[in-house]
């Protein structure tokens, strides 16, 4: 077993971690580095090789992935990514970065001295680089918060898998906490409701509100994954917060991938059905995505719109995700704060103490160099 290099530290009289800090690692799925087939292929190869995502026996899946999917999908997906790419990059990256910076600032404003970084499960910035950043900043306690409100093995559990795999190669491991989900968090629900109400205030209300969640293979539900039920609960709570009745809303599942049955009802067929049944205007919102990304901006705001209008609908409006809206940043900051309870996070250090810590860090670096550290 080869261990990852340890950052500079000191033995003996100085207690390890005397100046240990608390880190917060926000994690999202990840996205290609560029909207071109090569970058998309690299991203999809990593993502779709994860056995938590595709639960098909490896030899069979390897042939399908490398023989078909990675030859066909990147070109088409690159064009779809290009259609939503922002000046600063992929929407998922842009919103994740803004959320990270905003939570960092909000925690500081609330008096916490913690390090907040962003890591992506696939692609960049990798979880390895994010964990390394936290180590270099002296974090010996780390709170990991996957930015998925609803737990699923294919999204949330694979984050803890990856972090634990990194720690399995680390000698001096940090103290760790994982947030499992926040599908029923009152602050999250309130920020969803605020987004929808705000949209309606400015644009009026459509006949139906469609709440579309990312899908999963139906089999995951049968095997005990709570994702489906958590989506339903988020939907129920949001409907209540909006003061609506269930008949004014459809809860659906999008982004079906592959030939197997996925969670139902499917979003696009439901939209077509609504149009055929005389519903002419719909408002579409995706509560499971805390930031807009290709799945919302391309699939929901473009593809699904075309399908609804082609089926006879006349007005289709996509309501943007909660992104960096003030209520959501506030809710996310409170969520972090709550999960940090019991860990020292306050910046209650005098300038003298800060100077002493800086000197100590310098001594530790020199000491490590004497010992021949190379990192
Ligand atoms: C919100 C939760 C998500 C679940 C659950 C989820 C499951 C899941 N996804 C795929 C396949 C793909 N997903 C893709 C993009 C994508 N998926 C999520 C979130 C969930 N996925 C996000 C936030 C994104 C956007 C990434 C971005 O760059 O913006 C893609 C890539 C896009 C495409 O080619 O269509 C695939 C493929 C599976 C198989 C799965 C569960 C088994
Ligand atoms: Fe040491
Ligand atoms: Fe997905």
Automatic annotation (TrEMBL):
Function, in words: Catalyzes the ferrous insertion into protoporphyrin IX.
Source superkingdom: Bacteria
Location in or out of the cell: Cytoplasm
Recorded GO CC terms: cytoplasm
Enzyme class: lyase
Gene3D superfamilies, alphabetized: 3.40.50.1400
MF terms (GO), sorted A to Z: ferrochelatase activity; metal ion binding
Taxonomic source organism: Pigmentiphaga litoralis
Signal peptide from the UniProt entry: none
CDD domains, per the entry: Ferrochelatase_C, Ferrochelatase_N
Name of this protein: Ferrochelatase
Name of the gene this protein is made from: hemH
């Amino acid at each position: 077993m080869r261990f990852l290099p340890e950052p500079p530290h000191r033995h003996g009289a100085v207690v390890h971690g005397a100046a240990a800090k608390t880190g917060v690692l926000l994690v999202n799925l990840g996205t290609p580095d560029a909207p071109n087939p090569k970058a998309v292929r690299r991203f999809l190869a990593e993502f779709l090789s994860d056995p938590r995502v595709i639960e098909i026996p490896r030899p069979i899946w390897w042939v399908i992935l490398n023989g078909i999917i990675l030859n066909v999908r990147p070109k088409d997906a690159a064009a779809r990514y290009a259609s939503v790419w922002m000046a600063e990059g992929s929407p998922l990256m842009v919103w994740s970065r803004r959320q990270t910076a905003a939570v960092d600032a909000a925690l500081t404003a609330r008096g916490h001295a913690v390090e907040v970084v962003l890591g992506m499960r696939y692609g960049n910035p990798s979880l390895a680089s994010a964990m390394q950043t936290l180590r270099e900043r002296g974090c010996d306690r780390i709170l990991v918060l996957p930015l998925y409100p609803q737990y699923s093995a294919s999204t949330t559990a694979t984050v803890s898998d990856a972090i634990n795999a990194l720690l399995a190669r680390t000698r001096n491991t940090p103290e760790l906490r994982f947030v499992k989900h926040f599908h029923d968090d009152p602050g999250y629900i309130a920020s969803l409701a605020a987004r929808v109400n705000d949209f309606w205030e400015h644009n009026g209300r459509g006949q139906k509100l469609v709440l579309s969640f990312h899908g999963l293979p139906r089999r995951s539900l049968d095997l005990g994954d709570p994702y489906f039920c958590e989506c339903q609960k988020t939907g129920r709570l949001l409907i209540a917060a909006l003061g609506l009745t269930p008949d004014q809303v459809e809860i659906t599942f999008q982004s079906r991938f592959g030939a197997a049955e996925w969670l139902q009802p499917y979003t696009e067929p439901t939209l077509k059905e609504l149009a055929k049944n005389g519903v002419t205007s719909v408002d579409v919102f995706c509560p499971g995505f805390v930031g807009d990304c290709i799945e919302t901006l391309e699939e929901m705001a473009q593809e699904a719109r075309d399908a609804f209008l082609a089926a006879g609908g006349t007005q289709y409006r996509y309501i943007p995700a909660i992104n960096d809206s003030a209520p959501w940043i506030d809710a996310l900051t409170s969520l972090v704060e709550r999960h940090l309870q019991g860990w020292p996070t306050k910046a209650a250090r005098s300038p003298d103490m800060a100077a002493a810590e800086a000197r100590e860090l310098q001594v530790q670096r020199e000491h490590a160099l004497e010992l021949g550290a190379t990192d």
